[in-house]
Amino acid sequence: MTLPFYIIDVFAENKYAGNQLAVFLEAENLSSEEMQRIAKEINFAESTFITKLDFENNRAEIRIFTPASEMKFAGHPIIGTSWVLIHKIFKNEPDAITLKVPIGEIAIRKTEDLIWLQAAQPEFLNVFDKEDFLSFSSLKSEDFEDQYPVQEVTTGSAFVIVPLKDQKALEALVLDKDKTNDWLMKNCQTNHRALYFYCLEDSKIISRMLCVEHNQLVEDAATGSASTCLQAFLLKYHSAKIETINHQGDFINRPSRIYFKGELTENEYTIQIGGKSQFVAKGDWEA
């Protein structure tokens, strides 16, 4: 079986930045096990598989896999797959399409060179003691932003949001893999366990996402799902309206820019993230 595929850099202002994504077409006959093996082979943070296309209504169904497991929702795969569908698959480059993922349908829109998604309503889970982090990280008590809590948040995939005081603390951050994994396993409420550290400097967001995968400490270049959780967190605790850019990936030489546009009105969250994508390559995969 031969599968057409595209490689895209997502949340990237320029090629060879942002987060890499492989998008596989004509994947409806692949089993879950085959998709997982392909995602492990290509070894990007995520790969997507388009399993159904509705050209008349500009709709598609996709599945999302990391090298280790399937995801119910993930921002950079949805943004990148939408870029491929809009620019390479659907006719006339539509301004709006719909993607169906395991958590439901996601409305996608295009404005100039940005692709936007609107996230589901957030759930705010456990609040944690900042002192916990002193046992498995290089952080000191004074490195935390005192104004906000440390809290697990989900809009489909859960992340522990960790506010830090400044960029210096964020850049110097080091985690102990085994102790971090133990803490995540004991404390996270869902099967998706990850930490999203950020700081605010003059309304500019700088962030780092770290998790343990395949017994390795992994840092992600751009994390759309974590960005939707962070945006919800900021709307709840910082400001009921937000329009800014999240800077991620700079510390691993994959600079990423994730655009935020959100609002909290009478307990209803409007959470939108957007980004640019850069076309890198296309080819055929021998499955």
From TrEMBL:
Which species is this record about? Flavobacterium cupreum
Query: One Pfam family for this entry, by name?
Result: PhzC-PhzF
Gene Ontology terms, cellular component aspect?
cytoplasm
What Gene3D superfamilies does this protein's entry cite? Diaminopimelate Epimerase, Chain A, domain 1
Family, as annotated: Belongs to the PhzF family.
The record's NCBIfam families line, in alphabetical order, gives: PhzF_family (TIGR00654)
GO molecular function list: isomerase activity
Which PANTHER family does this chain map to? ANTISENSE-ENHANCING SEQUENCE 1, PHENAZINE BIOSYNTHESIS PROTEIN
Q: What is this protein called?
A: PhzF family phenazine biosynthesis protein
- Give the residues annotated as active site: 46
Q: Which domain of life is it from?
A: Bacteria
